[in-house]
């Protein structure tokens, strides 16, 4: 298990990390999300040992991570780290050899990963001739070429086209399936929601919410999705008379909440009113086609929890966010 305990890191007067802790189990994909400047890159760089921590520790299977373990980590840095004027194939072989692979093994791994990531035809090109997306595929190959025991990837999906996103997602799933703990940061929350076993939301240097997608969604505010066969004015008036303030359904027009002529879709905070009273109010506007509990998606949770943690010096309440005390991450 990869364990990060109580990291603190300051740059001058700025405290970038404030007691950040997380655990990633073998075979698990952990999504590391947070606003710009929250501290994700700083924490990942400390995990890799390319940045020192002021206090706290990073351990692998109970032992502090040393140079030997670090050599076996696959890392994709945010600032990317390829040599622009070096050929893709030679560069990957070079990285593989740096991590201790023999020549034949390095060549074999380079061929395997460039094939898998769809850049085999570019092996003899200098990196700078590749599109940014293809450079990113090569960067992922560089993180994988030495068959790492841990994967730490800083925004691996940013700027990728949908095909490349699928290829990269499948690679991460396969690596996790083979028992590797995978941690990656991303601002693409729909992707994180689809791909990750667990997610940690970082705000101002600490994890403010953490759990499986299911746990996080269930801990969010319950809502009711309503679809009523009546015009919006009529539906809003009927609900207002029952003391409810409906919101537009953010999923309207998707396969979860298809639009139809004459159908009004709204979301109601389930804590505002009991189900029976809500149903009566909706029926007074027209036939009710849908009346279903709705759990918030990661993007909604993210906004709630990050806003809840916004005060300059977070209070205990703010630090806990909307999910209550952070759960122990042990399984
Ligand atoms: N070398 C550095 N010197 C000074 N400040 C730094 C340094 N590295 C990071 N910081 C600051 O530490 C804070 C955390 O930055 P970090 O890059 O870890 O955030 P992040 O969560 O990765 O953000 P993003 O999503 O924008 O990549 C920011 O305020 C950043 O400006």
Strand order, main sheet: write it out: 6-7-8-3-9-10
**Share in β-strands:** 25-35%
- The CATH class assignment of the domain at 2-72 and 149-217 is Alpha Beta
Approximately how much helix is present in the residues? 25-40%
Largest sheet features = 6 strands, mixed
Q: Uncertain runs with pLDDT below 50, 5 residues or more?
A: 312-331
- What's the helix count? 12
Q: Total number of β-strand segments?
A: 14
CATH architecture of the domain at 2-72 and 149-217: 3-Layer(aba) Sandwich
Mean pLDDT: 88
Bound molecules: adenosine-5'-triphosphate
Element order, helices and strands?
Answer: EEEHEEHEHHHEHEHEEHEHEEHEHH
- Quote the CATH topology of the domain at 2-72 and 149-217: Rossmann fold
What's the shape? elongated
Class inferred from helices and paired strands: alpha/beta
Estimated radius of gyration: 24 Å
Quaternary structure type:
single chain
Termini separation comes to 11 Å
The named CATH superfamily of the domain at 2-72 and 149-217: P-loop containing nucleotide triphosphate hydrolases
Summarize this structure as a short list of keywords or feature phrases.
elongated; Alpha-Beta Plaits; alpha/beta; 331 residues; binds adenosine-5'-triphosphate; Rossmann fold; 4-stranded antiparallel sheet; 12 helices; single chain
């Amino acid at each position: 298990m990869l364990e990060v305990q109580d990291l603190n890191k300051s740059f001058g007067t700025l405290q970038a990390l404030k007691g950040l802790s997380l655990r990633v189990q073998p075979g698990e994909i952990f999504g590391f999300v947070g606003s710009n400047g929250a501290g994700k890159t700083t924490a990942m760089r400390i995990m890799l040992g390319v940045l020192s921590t002021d206090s706290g520790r990073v351990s692998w299977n109970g032992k502090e991570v040393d140079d030997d373990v670090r050599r076996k980590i696959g890392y994709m840095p945010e600032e990317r780290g390829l040599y622009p004027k070096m050929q893709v194939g030679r560069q990957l072989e070079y990285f593989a050899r740096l991590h201790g692979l023999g020549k034949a093994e390095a060549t074999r791994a380079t061929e395997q990963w460039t094939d898998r990531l769809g850049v085999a035809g570019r092996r003899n090109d200098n990196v700078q001739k590749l599109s940014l997306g293809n450079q990113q595929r090569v960067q992922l190959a560089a993180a994988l070429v030495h068959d790492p025991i841990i994967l730490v990837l800083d925004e691996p999906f940013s700027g990728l086209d949908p095909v490349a996103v699928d290829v990269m997602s499948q690679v991460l799933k396969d690596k996790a399936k083979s028992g590797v703990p995978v941690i990656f940061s991303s601002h693409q929350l729909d992707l994180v929601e689809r791909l990750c076993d667990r997610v940690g939301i970082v705000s101002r240097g600490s994890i403010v919410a953490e759990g499986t997608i299911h746990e996080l969604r269930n801990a969010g505010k319950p809502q009711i999705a309503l679809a009523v066969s009546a015009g919006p004015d009529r539906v809003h008036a009927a609900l207002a008379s029952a003391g409810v303030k409906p919101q537009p359904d953010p999923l309207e027009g998707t396969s979860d909440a298809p639009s139809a002529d004459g159908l009004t879709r709204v979301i109601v905070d389930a804590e505002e009113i009991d189900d029976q009273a809500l149903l009566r109010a909706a029926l007074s506007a027209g036939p009710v086609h849908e009346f279903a509990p709705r759990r918030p998606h990661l993007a909604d949770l993210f906004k709630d929890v990050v806003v809840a943690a916004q005060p300059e010096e977070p209070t205990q309440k703010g630090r806990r966010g909307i999910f209550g005390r952070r759960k122990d991450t042990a399984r």
